[in-house]
Amino acid sequence: MSAPVHLMQAATEQTGMWPEWRRPTRRTWFVVGMALLLLTLGYALQPRLTENTVDEATLNRLIPKSFGEWVEVKSTVPQVTTATDQALSDQQPYDAQVMRTYRHSSGQTVMIAIAYGRNQRQEIKVHRPEVCYAAAGRKVVSIAPTEFGIESGDGQPVIGMQMLTTLPRQEADELVLYWIRIGHTFSQSGLTQRLHILTEGLKGRRSDGILVRFSQIIPRNSDTAASKNLQQAFARELIAALPKEGRQLLIN
Predict the structure, then answer these.
(1) C-alpha span between 117 and 50 (Å, rounded)
(2) Geometric angle at alpha carbon 203, from 87 and 195, rounded to 5°
(3) How high is the pLDDT of residue 93?
């Protein structure tokens, strides 16, 4: 950024050597000065990426395969993808993903999907599950805010969404609970995500983001309260079992 300034100073020193009719006007110097100012501001506001570097192996290591009375098991139930399309690899919002099914000693099972992206921006960001489920042919019956009884590192409650979907051609529903962390905030809408990314960009920062999704297959039209309580309890036990690095990643 210093080279244009030196050129401007050199030109100023040589002004007296120019013929009167070729001498730059005040308006010319004003335009040049404004251009340099805009270049400086553009550099200063260039978003800096987060320092987090999480790949597939790291994420798999941070998420325990067993904790409390929960243990990972093989499952024949396919999970809905965390993306909405088959975009090119350089357009994918995630750097690492984990999808697992856990079984409790009582026989209950919970599916989890965790997807992390280091570089959140307007055109490529964490996909919201209601969009992914609809793209997968699921009908979203209801969606509403929910809490998990978990606090982030700076004391704010971890808030997310509760979503009920139907499985096509099956007499079953899927209750989904999830949260999305973008930087230090928890987003409950796509608009909130966009505003946060825009605000951070104006400050010269680019946030990371993570989707933490829990779900359970339940009988069609059954009471969802028991499944919701089970998933919330599962989420709290999972967070409690994580190493410090894992907690920072999931809830900051």
Answers:
(1) 10
(2) 55
(3) 73
Other CB atoms within a 10 A radius of the CB of residue 45 amount to 12
**What is d(CA 78, CA 111) in angstroms, rounded to the nearest whole number?**
10
Rounded Cα–Cα distance for residues 137 and 167 (Å): 8
Taking the CA atoms of residue 243, residue 244, residue 245 and residue 246 in that order, the dihedral angle to the nearest 10 degrees is 50
pTM of the model: 0.73
Residues in the chain: 252
CB 178 within 8 A of CB 165: no
Per-residue model confidence as pLDDT tens digits over 203-239:
656 678 899 999 999 999 898 999 999 999 999 999 9
Burial of 138 (0-12, 13-18, 19+ CB in 10 A): buried
